[in-house]
Design goal:
The complex is a heterodimer of chains A (318) and B (269).
Chain A lengths: L6 H5 L2 H12 L11 H31 L3 H27 L11 H10 L1 H35 L1 H15 L6 H8 L3 H26 L3 H9 L4 H39 L4 H10 L3 H29 L4
Chain B lengths: L2 E12 L6 E12 L3 E5 L6 H9 L6 E6 L2 E2 L7 E4 L11 H12 L5 H14 L15 H14 L4 E5 L7 H17 L5 E6 L2 H7 L2 E5 L6 E6 L8 H6 L1 H28 L1
Parallel strand pairs in B: 3-8, 3-9, 6-7, 7-8
Antiparallel strand pairs in B: 1-2, 1-4, 4-5, 9-10
Helix pairs in contact in B: 2-3, 2-4, 3-4
Classes of the chains: A mainly alpha (318), B alpha/beta (269).
């Protein structure tokens, strides 16, 4: 254990109090369901899932609190769990305890959690279907947009023309390609991949060209005086110098890709996270709709977490 | 001794169509092999332009520029260039920067050998312990030391230095000047150095000869030998009466030229 942070500071945090509050409100009598006795049982059953989940969060928080080295990380973790506790307290009170919102439209947390557990296998299938499409479209955009950006950005004349064109095409919201893509291409998967590709291409292409145009004169002159050859100039100097802007473009592209993917899946897919949400809300199964929304949030956050890690590694020299 | 650098009637114009501006107007001088020459002048006099022409980074309108009797057509590994700042590649560590330079002149050599050369020169500039650091984690003075190590490690005969210590604090500037002199005199075959600066004391301490340029457009105003024996020791040098006299005349020339220009300018108005 790290000695710099005293044990008292590690364990005496407001989050634990909130956890206790969450446990206490479970004792409150459940809202009497106006429909059938069966629903009441369901609520009591679901409370177990919520309590188990919260306990897992609490155990994780305690484990992190005891092992973490930096004070900032400790504060961050306990604040985030405090936020989770507050959301769950409010959610439980509004649904299971006071029934402010119709249970059919907005089920209590335990029911949603139970649904996640029952649906784990299909959910993993939908997640991998969605991620595969993103990976296809996005990586195709990377391998085409970066080399083309390097070629066009290296020439002042073509570069200016290309950035005009890319501004025009980049301004078109890529969602509008979806209906035409469906008419044009054989399968829904190719349509999604194409739309994601089109949407990712322009930010990455623009970022690459921008990066080249922003290269410091000193760096270029310095490389020239070293006698760097053409190919090496492109790969060892230009590409590296433009990397921060390329990554900026790629992160924009990734954001747009997820928006498009889920929209496209809602329109025409037979699987994927967007389909999961749309399909179950059409069927009136709002528990699963909420599950889908939360899972989409988690998946996208994890992808961006990984992307930021990669970015930090690639730009560790900054 | 053979001339390493021959410049005659060098004219550099800049500015696009219509507004033609003269940066250099008929600069003529030669530098024998192994000489340390400082080019001084106030900012905007074209001394950096002169160096960029020698480095092949900047074209010229008229005159001839010869290195080893051959006309300059572009940058080449026969000349090493040290810029004022920000010339290291920020995505490479200090060692990688030097290695990258060495790899440009020793193509096809095993990495191990290139690394050994790089480490040798990093050691010479006293940065062995900082070899793994990125430029952003080095002070301005340390970055310039890496830049010097890179240039020396490449083994060019001619060193072109554009106010290399201009952006370094006063204390480090003195240390770097001494380091540069040590490195220069240690070489078995002394390099020909063209050192651009606006610091007259720096020029006197370092060089065999000082060339002073007139204000824009630049041309040679004064070409004077600095006849202090080497090795030079700053304290002793500064105490000597000869140094004092020399410095005074040089400063008088430097500022006298300015006053003349001011008179001329006011006359025009």
């Amino acid at each position: 254990m790290n000695k710099k942070i005293p044990l008292k500071q590690r364990l005496f945090r407001i989050s634990h109090l909130l956890f206790a509050v969450f446990l206490l409100i479970q004792i409150l009598p459940p809202a009497m369901s106006k429909i059938r006795g069966k629903t009441e049982l369901a609520i009591a059953d679901s409370a177990v899932h919520a309590v188990v989940f919260m306990a897992a969060v609490e155990i994780m928080l305690i484990a992190v609190s005891l092992t973490v080295k930096k004070r900032e990380t400790l504060v961050l973790f306990s604040d985030v769990s405090a936020f989770v506790y507050i959301v769950f307290i409010a959610w439980t009170l509004a649904t299971a305890k006071f029934n402010f919102i119709s249970e059919q439209l907005f089920p209590p947390p335990g029911i949603v959690l139970r649904q996640v557990i029952t649906d784990v296998t299909p959910l993993l299938g939908h997640i991998s279907a969605s991620l595969l499409l993103i990976a296809k479209g996005f990586s195709l955009a990377c391998v085409t947009a970066i080399p083309l950006g390097l070629v066009f950005g290296s020439s002042a004349r073509f570069g200016t023309a290309a950035s005009m064109v890319s501004k025009f095409i980049g301004a078109i919201p890529p969602v509008v390609y979806i209906p035409y893509g469906i008419a044009l291409l054989p399968t829904f998967k190719t349509v999604s991949a194409m739309v994601i590709f089109l949407a990712s291409f322009w930010p990455i292409f623009g970022g690459t060209m921008n990066g080249i145009m922003l290269i410091d004169r000193n760096i270029v002159n310095s490389a020239r005086t070293l006698g760097v050859r053409r190919v090496s100039m492109l790969f060892d100097i230009t590409l590296n110098a433009a990397l921060p802007q390329i990554l900026l473009g790629a992160s924009q592209a990734l954001t747009v890709s997820f928006i498009l993917l889920t929209s496209a899946e809602m329109i025409a897919a037979r699987n994927g996270l967007g389909y999961y949400v749309k399909n179950y809300s059409d069927l009136g199964n709002y528990t699963r709709t909420i599950v889908g929304v939360i899972v989409i949030g988690i998946v996208i956050s994890l992808v961006f977490f990984a992307f930021n890690r990669l970015q930090r590694f690639l730009l560790r020299w900054k | 001794m053979k001339n390493k650098i021959d410049i005659s009637g060098l004219i550099v114009e800049y500015g696009e169509r219509g507004g033609k501006n003269l940066a250099l107007d008929g600069v003529t001088f030669s530098v024998p092999e192994g000489q340390f020459v400082s080019v001084v002048g106030s900012s905007g006099c074209g001394k950096s332009t002169l160096l960029y022409v020698l480095g092949g980074l900047c074209g010229f309108t008229g005159g001839t520029v010869l290195i080893d009797g051959k006309p300059v057509t572009g940058p080449g590994s026969d000349r090493g260039f040290v810029f004022q700042q920000y010339s290291l590649f920020p995505w490479m560590t200090a060692r990688k920067n030097v290695m990258f330079g060495v790899a440009q002149v020793r193509r096809g050599y095993p990495r191990r050998e290139i690394r050994a050369v790089a480490d040798e020169y990093l050691n010479k500039v006293g940065l062995t312990n900082a070899a793994h650091r990125y430029p952003s984690r080095l002070s301005g003075g340390m970055q310039q030391r890496v830049a010097i190590a890179r240039t020396l490690a490449m083994g060019a005969d001619v060193l072109l230095m554009d106010e290399p210590f201009g952006a370094v604090d006063a204390k480090n500037r003195v240390l770097l000047q001494e380091l540069l002199l040590d490195l220069w005199s240690d070489e078995t075959k002394r390099k020909t150095v063209v050192f651009v600066t606006h610091d007259l004391d720096e020029a006197i301490f370092l060089s065999d000869r000082i060339i002073m340029l007139t204000d824009s457009p630049g041309s040679v105003y004064l070409d004077i030998a600095v006849e202090f024996p080497r090795p030079r020791y700053r304290d002793e040098m500064m105490k000597s009466i000869v140094y004092d006299d020399f410095r005074r005349t040089l400063f008088a020339d430097f500022f006298g030229q300015k006053e003349k220009k001011i008179e001329r300018d006011s006359f025009i108005i």
